[in-house]
Amino acid sequence: MKKSFRSTLIDTVMKSAEDYDNLVVLNADSARALKLTGFTKAWPGRMFGVGISEADMIGTAAGMAAAGLLPVIVGFSMFVSEKPFEQIRQAVAYPNLNVKIIATHSGLCVGQDGATHQALEDIAVMRALPNFKVYAAADVTETKAAAEAMLKHEGPAYLRLGRDLAEDIFDENKSFFPGGADVLREGPDVTIAACGLMVEQALIAASALRSGGIHATVLNTYSIKPLPEDLLLDRARKTKAFVTAEDHSVTGGLGGAVSEYLSQTCPVPVIRVGVEDCFGESGTQDELYQKYGLTADHIIDAARRAISMKA
């Protein structure tokens, strides 16, 4: 059953405001689109809309954190990571302030909004920042677990979400911690490490591969920085072939992070499934995933290629 990222997010933020009396929420003229208007009614004085001025929003959040508040920035991924990147670097990452950024509408799943709104580089830029933790949620249960975990851990963090609906993958007891990942399938032939909405596609691919005699390990690699290094190393040694899958550019995202790590510790073939070196365009999520190679079929082809490259 598909459920809404945005509805779960606002429910979680509302509940968290009860647990953290210093929690404040900031948005850049996106409260209605993100279904945050209920927060203002429930917690007057703790929602701050800065207008279409994302750089000011980051600076405001940094000042709040320095004064002891717990600022949570919520907005479209493109406009809370890439547009105000300089301010994030200088005002949040450099002084290592306790600012949380929750980014919705990440990747091609933005659909008809087109290339200007499709953040295909946000993982790359955010994981390059010292002090930042970078996460991605695969469904609404993980969204709740991720947001709660972010608030518990001190320091800047970035959480990447889809636009709206996601298939249920996890039950209500989902664990989430820095450097964590979930083993969703076990298999000796190839490891498929996916994040975000591509976890669903990875599971579909693994089932299809199994019917053809190929048994894949599937990882929900929700912590992109820090990586689940011990688990990645263990699976590289066992399966000797990797596929990564993400709704993001193949440059600098999860695939880049996994490749960088394994090339230094246990070099194995790594085939990256993601958007090649290009911008997206307008279309439905399904149309764009098909055109840009983000489907279970593409993961299946990548898995077979990775296996054929084993030493």
TrEMBL record:
SUPFAM superfamilies linked: Thiamin diphosphate-binding fold (THDP-binding) (SSF52518), TK C-terminal domain-like (SSF52922)
Assigned keywords, A-Z: Membrane, Thiamine pyrophosphate, Transferase, Transmembrane, Transmembrane helix
InterPro entries in alphabetical order: PDH/Transketolase (IPR051157), THDP-binding (IPR029061), Transketo_C/PFOR_II (IPR009014), Transketolase-like_Pyr-bd (IPR005475), Transketolase_BS (IPR020826), Transketolase_C (IPR033248)
Location of the Transketolase-like pyrimidine-binding domain: 3-169
Positions of transmembrane segments: 57-80
GO terms of molecular function: transferase activity
Family under the similarity heading: Belongs to the transketolase family.
Name of this chain's protein: Transketolase family protein
Organism: Extibacter muris
